[in-house]
Amino acid sequence: DFTAVARKLRSHGRRVVGIGLRDAASDLLVRSCDEFIIYDTLVEKDESTTGYHLNSIRQMVLTLLQQMMAQFEGGAIPLAALDQEFEKRQPELKWASLGFSGLQDFLESQKELTVLSPADGETSVIVRSSITARAEVDQILQYRTALSTAGFRLVDHEIRQDVLQALHTLLTNEPGVHTLEKSILRLKEQYDDDNLLRSRDDIHEVARLVKQATVLESQPESWELDALTLSPDLSLVDFVRRCESVYMTSLVQRNLSIDDEALARLLYGRTDAWNEVQALQALAADTLHDTGTQVSAESRHRLPRHLAQNTDVRNALQDMVNWPLDEEASLEKAVQYNQMGMELRTADFERSRVYFLKAAKMMYLLLLDKQPGASLMDMEWYLASYCAATAGAHFSQHNYPQAILYYQAFFAIVKETEPVWDRVRKLVPPMLSFYFTIAPNEYSDLLKVAPGRTHPARLCVLLHNHRNVGVRRRWLELARSLVLINPALLRGIIQRLAFLEDDDQLSGSHETRVTLTRLLSGEAVNDDPLLTEQKSTYENGVYALNGSHSTNGTDRAKNGVTEYP
């Protein structure tokens, strides 16, 4: 391999970055590079469900093979019989969407599992003995799939615990100083100074466990903006275990049975680590007890507490609970509907919102039935996607009161401190931009910029300096609502405005930042000069037609926030 090349380059003082597949790169090559990037982590890991779908299909095929082996002599299953049985279970599967021409093509890519044996014009499928002899492979694969779907990539246990130890030391020695992102950068600098091979990707993956672990004195609003302080007297052992218990919590939430030996092999590389596994189970049980569920008065169904108590999500939850599902719910169908919705979400809001709603309803029913693999995070992901598509549908139809309801439901679900954030964070900026664009649209005063391609901070500058006082006041009302729903989003915009002010020197960014900062702190801003003075000139390239106020429905003001009947 390239080990000798990497070493030679480093001997000449060069910084060497390697890249390769997780299962193909040798440990020697990894250690010979200053940094090694795992290619698998670069391919659409945030928004694509293809990786999960492939893993679930792989597990399904393996289960089917093991069930059919006893029916045929020597365990050689005719490919045609396997294909027919698989078609019964997955009639809607389109192999082409996964990159394969059919079942045979898929099996040929899984050479570590099966051998295809053509004879007398018929091809048979034989499961490799190394697989049939290891019953735990099914369980480990199921665990890997579940963690991957939850957004976790398992880092080698020695590296994982080393990074957690370094993170504990940093946050203990410097409490209230570093955000999570700054902690990651600081650890990377330390490892580089010590000439230790730790990729930023590995450090980032391990540090993300802090987001869902009960290790902090107080939960931040934003991982990018708020400094972290550990809980008092939290020992290193407790810190590491609480962070690693996040894996266990994710598996238990999916109603998966826990095999101590299989999980010990997966998490620690050895089967005798059952004490550690049982300690993680106890911590996961405490976490799940604290989060809990509650009965929704509207639906009379059991829902997660943080959703059931949130009035901004009420309409979306009612849509999901009341949706008349005319087919049996399954994990595979939920994933397929979500994938179909994602493929259409920028082209057809109406069809995509139905697909997302079906996916959310299926996952909701599977959670109620405690089906193995059902995921609360996936349900929230599908529901957030439904809110985004529904808001887009109402926006395109100029039904702004309804659009606002679903924009705000989206912002209420996708808080940075919730696990679903990593799934939808790329949607947040354009959603904010379209949400703020409602202000000029209600006055039939169209912007000269495209909201989908304009950062919400820049859009706020345009709206703050808009010549129509009604537009400016309406924009502030929308921003004030955002403070009540998800203040971290407005804090992110304020941070971006500071960058636009200092680096881009964008005219109007300072005044906009001051206004939003006052709004965030709870100060009244209706005395802002911009709201009491009708401007007669265009500023900063701000646009176009001065129309009359049109809100597609009666509105009324209460406590400075516009409500819709």
In short:
The chain is mainly alpha-helical and 565 residues long. The protein is 56% helix and 6% strand. Helix 19 runs antiparallel to helix 21.
Describe this protein's structure.
This protein is mostly helical. It contains 26 helices and 9 strands. Helix 3 runs antiparallel to helix 16 (331-344) and helix 21 (428-442) runs parallel beside helix 22. The longest helix has 21 residues, at 376-396. It starts with a helix and ends with a strand.
Blueprint of the fold:
Elements: H1 3-11, E1 17-20, H2 27-32, E2 35-38, H3 50-68, E3 77-78, H4 79-89, H5 103-108, E4 114-119, E5 122-127, H6 129-132, H7 136-149, H8 157-173, H9 180-193, H10 200-207, H11 236-253, H12 260-268, H13 274-291, E6 293-295, E7 302-304, H14 305-308, H15 314-322, H16 331-344, H17 349-368, H18 376-396, H19 400-413, H20 421-424, H21 428-442, H22 456-464, H23 469-485, H24 487-504, H25 509-520, H26 529-532, E8 556-558, E9 561-563
Parallel strand pairs: 1-2
Antiparallel strand pairs: 3-5, 4-5, 6-7, 8-9
Helix pairs in contact: 3-7, 3-16, 7-12, 8-10, 8-11, 9-10, 11-13, 12-13, 16-17, 17-18, 18-19, 19-21, 21-22, 21-23, 22-24, 22-25, 23-24, 24-25
